[in-house]
Amino acid sequence: MFFYLFGIIFLYLVWKLKDYFDFKDVKNYSKTSTPLIKSAFNIAFLSQEEIFAYLRRNADRFQGSYAHWFFGLWSFEICRAKDAEQILGSAKHIDKSNIYNLLHPFLKTGLLTSNGEKWHTRRRLLTPAFHFDILKEYLEVFREESDRLVMSLKSMNGKEVDIVPIATQFTLNTICESAMGVKLSGFGNDGIIYRKNIYQMGTLLLSRLLRPWLMSDFVYSLLGHKKQMDEVLKPVLAFTKSIIATRKANFTNTTIEETPEEVELNENIYFRSKKRRYAMMDTLLQAEQQGLIDDEGIIEETDTFTFEGHDTTSSAITFIILLLAHHPEAQEAIFNEIQEFLHMKDELTIDDFNRFEYMDRVLKECMRIYPPVPFISRNLAEDYQHDGFVQPKGTTVNIHIFDIHRDPEIFPDPEKFDPDRFLPENCAKRSNFAFIAFSAGMRNCIGQRFAMLELKMVVSKLVSNFKIVPITQREDITFVGDMILRSREPIRIKFIRK
Ligand code: HEM
């Protein structure tokens, strides 16, 4: 096996050496990190936490964006807002880089991973699923699930809890109900296995990404990694498939029962049925009836929404709670803001949530410090000039949201929690690309408003019912390199009933 591996790596390096000489311009660029063979091997076998730290060290060393040469692959690593603006603000560089191909066995080419015409068509098709009227329906799901979360935390009053699995279960419940219209409780242990295997997949993906010789499907399979990945993915893919089947059966039954007038009415409000709550998947099922998408398409989008819609929000909730726990003054200010809006009524409306200015600033500041998606990646559609050097067409550009959010020139004392950074007058002083937790430009997050509403609902319920007390200290957190921001250790919190 070792002999095989050595041979493959050697052939790969000889083949890639040509690229090194092709990229003459970048090679002379002073901010270039070119780990030589020995250190490149060290990087390839770094642990998840070491790779996260390595990237932060590089951002620090170059005090901004830099070029990176790693096993024959050139990439441009963006750590500053002005460079991110050049890429994300352009209508040209909208294609995802090859890194996303690693997600194909899981998400195929759904909205997150597709490019070109397919992406345009799907984005148009799915945008109505986030219409204001529909968000109102999701709000009810968020309310029910947040109430359930509060009940469960009350039963653990004052005890130390690890918030990570609690947040993940909450967000998986909400996405299953709002995206797929089914309650997770009806699927036994499937949700738990799904969550566990998504974590394992992240680890396997990173190890493939760090070892470029594994990019070839042939080599990946030859060395036995594909089998391992297939085993991890099997229950994940089966989980969404079974949910789609359940919803599909209901969808067909419901449409048969409706009168032509009802069908017309439902179509006008994005296929919402009066008989049951709308789910994002209904948009896809309706599109299927119109011949705009096939079975495969429904599966890839459902997998995409289930994954993107729960793991990101779970990371966001985890770190929002941690920061609130460390800032009782912010908990109190949010509570006071809620009281102003609750005046004379029991529950908050979608308009109230949209008017919460202070809470909005707190959530953004939390996602600035702890962006749930720490990096994204693009493929340059044409040559790109940077600092007098040309990054050639086809180069992978990695945009490190984590480092962009820590640029001390834009966010002085970046680790300090200061929601006032998001006061309108302060936002006006900086680039629109300085805070990009939801990315920006044409390929920004389609679920941004959905996510903000979910976060505001759960935060308002938690702050109204509990005093949130920290156990984990911020400086004790070790982050791991993954698609989503995760801590190696549990994040421990106490919820004390008010
Ligand atoms: C706090 C929560 C969230 C954060 C921080 C977040 C962040 C992001 C980011 C940074 C991207 C760009 C990805 C890239 O360029 O590779 C993205 C794209 C996307 N997000 Fe989110 N997201 C969140 C919640 C959601 C939710 C709740 C959904 C679905 C219900 C969702 C669905 C998507 C999809 C489908 C894309 C791909 C959009 C496209 O390429 O057209 N996200 N998100």
TrEMBL record:
SUPFAM superfamilies to which the protein is assigned, alphabetical: Cytochrome P450
Keyword set, alphabetical order: Heme, Iron, Metal-binding, Monooxygenase, Oxidoreductase
Entry annotated with the keyword Mitochondrion: no
Disulfide bond in keyword set: no
A UniProt-annotated Pfam family: p450
Top-level division of the source organism's lineage: Eukaryota
Cofactor: heme
Record InterPro entries: Cyt_P450, Cyt_P450_CS, Cyt_P450_E_grp-I, Cyt_P450_sf, Cytochrome_P450_Monoox
Binding site for heme: C445
Molecular function in Gene Ontology: heme binding; iron ion binding; monooxygenase activity; oxidoreductase activity, acting on paired donors, with incorporation or reduction of molecular oxygen
Function: May be involved in the metabolism of insect hormones and in the breakdown of synthetic insecticides.
Record family assignment: Belongs to the cytochrome P450 family.
Protein name: Cytochrome P450 4ac2
Gene from which this protein is expressed: Cyp4ac2
